[in-house]
Automatic annotation (TrEMBL):
Coiled coil ranges: none
Species per Swiss-Prot/TrEMBL record: Glycomyces rhizosphaerae
Enzyme Commission identifier(s): 2.3.1.-
Keywords tagged on the record: Acyltransferase, Transferase
One Pfam family, short name: Acetyltransf_4
Domain N-acetyltransferase per the UniProt entry, residue ranges: 7-168
PANTHER family: ACYLTRANSFERASE FABY-RELATED (PTHR43072:SF8), N-ACETYLTRANSFERASE (PTHR43072)
Segments traversing the membrane: none
Protein name: GNAT family N-acetyltransferase
GO MF term set: acyltransferase activity
InterPro entries: Acyl_CoA_acyltransferase, GNAT_dom
Amino acid sequence: MSSTDLVGVRFVELADAAAIAYIVNHYIAESTANFRTEPQTAAEWEQDIAQYAGRYPWLVAEYEGEAVGVAYAKPWNARQAYDWTAEATVYVADGQRGRRVGSTLYRDLLKRLEAQGFRSVMAQVTSPNPGSEALHAAFGFELVGTIKDAGYKHGEWRDVGIWQKTLTDLAGPPAPTASTASCSVRGGCEHLTG
Ligand SMILES: CC(C)(COP(=O)(O)OP(=O)(O)OC[C@H]1O[C@@H](n2cnc3c(N)ncnc32)[C@H](O)[C@@H]1OP(=O)(O)O)[C@@H](O)C(=O)NCCC(=O)NCCS
């Protein structure tokens, strides 16, 4: 794949679980970007997709029919007052990094989170992770804090940066966030456009 090839972005399906596990398990094994140390099964991903993809955008990047990246959001915290704060994550398949797959996914993910009515999006980035730090900075995230020695992996204590992007500065009581399905591919949502 060259940097100019078009990558398609679509909503996740349960059938993507095995491909997502394959993409992410590489980073679990080979990097400190993900603090798991044991691989995840497709069944675990199916469970997460079923639990979260209706309320948060879950997107897959495809190239020639193959999944080459995934970006998704989850609750930052399950307590109700956090309902407008999401946590975003993105993984690009090994061998496809640096070809704008991550930024293509993140552009779409952030647009959708904003359209669905989320106020903030957070990301936890192990430090150092130059690719992820560059991606988050490029999309307007700010480093708002660092958890020192947050985890021990691959023989060292690792810091985790907490990054935040404010999507909207609307004051006053917020409307409930919209479901993923009520938002079109272009990012408009029924409750906002209708
Ligand atoms: C982080 C990641 C998602 C970025 O996706 P990508 O497709 O490789 O990145 P892109 O090609 O879209 O580049 C996005 C920006 O980051 C920069 N960038 C990408 N990789 C970089 C690197 N290794 N070092 C410095 N900058 C880098 C690009 O130059 C670009 O900046 P620009 O918009 O100013 O030109 C991807 O590299 C990845 O999956 N990494 C491993 C898993 C991971 O760390 N996930 C994030 C967990 S928080």
